[in-house]
# Entry
Amino acid sequence: MGVKSDERRARKERIRNAFSSALKLEMGPFKLKGRDYEPRTTLKAHIAGFLNGLELPCVSVAQGYSHRRYYPLRIVERAARLMEVNASEFTSTINWGSKYHREQENDEERAPRLFC
# Structure
């Protein structure tokens, strides 16, 4: 086998391991659909292919004649941090969340803190 194929295989394993570790570290319920869904992202096609077989939380959204699979942005960002790369290497599009969810976060940031 060539050197490039060994490098590709090693990179694929590093990506799978990073996403697997990120899933374990990012506990909790993942709200990917409904009114107040959390920020989510689609993955680049080759990255999604690497992750086949992993039990990653995702939601499939119909768009025309096709479906898009959205994954929690916090898992993608955690995997990127574990690999020490930019998250944009994995993502295709980012959906920051529903308007309702963003407004709630802004209200919490603006609210005065009574207890420290």
